[in-house]
Amino acid sequence: MSTTKLDLTGLKCPLPALKTRKALKSITPGSFLEVHCTDPLSVIDIPNLIRETGDKVEIAERAESRIVFLIEKAAVPGN
Description:
The chain has 79 residues and is of the alpha+beta class. It is built from 2 helices and 4 strands, in the order E-H-E-H-E-E. Strand 3 and strand 4 (67-72) form a beta hairpin.
């Protein structure tokens, strides 16, 4: 199980969600993606994206200037 870090600080909606979706495609099930954002809308956009993908997300850190998401890539259905 590994963790990939994705720095999306400074990017505005919809780029954090789009880049998170792309990064999720490249990691293996059971691995984690740690996403760092500064866009306040990412607290809405990224959890909505994860609901679509079926992965798990939690907000690991939320400060005035940044939000850190920890996303666990779900196992591929049927395997």
